[in-house]
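Sample entry as discussed:
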Amino acid sequence: MEIWHNPRCSKSRAAKAALDEAGVAYTERRYLDEPPTAAEFDRTLTAIGAEPWDVARLGESVAKELDLRNLPHDRDAWIEIMVANPVLIERPIIVTDGSAVVARDDVSVRRALGGA
């Protein structure tokens, strides 16, 4: 299990705390410092069942600079932009064997842990 974590984000800290409380083994990936590759992000999106624009942080200044809201929905292009600018990737993401969730609430964290 791996959590794509931003320690400055309260939702990310809460998800990490839930993993700690559950006593599960996981790897913390500070994805802003160690962004996923395009292939990793593509696999993770598939595991989530989402497209990149579904997990994009459109309020970020770089999203506005790139006019991301108006970019055509080309999966490969969005993936390349998001891995080049990892701040655009919603957090936290919990990746397990064959599945992944954007864990912004308790229900999502439980789902990642196999409990909901």
Summary: The chain has a mean pLDDT of 95. The chain has five helices and four strands. The beta strands are 2-4, 27-29, 93-96, 99-102.
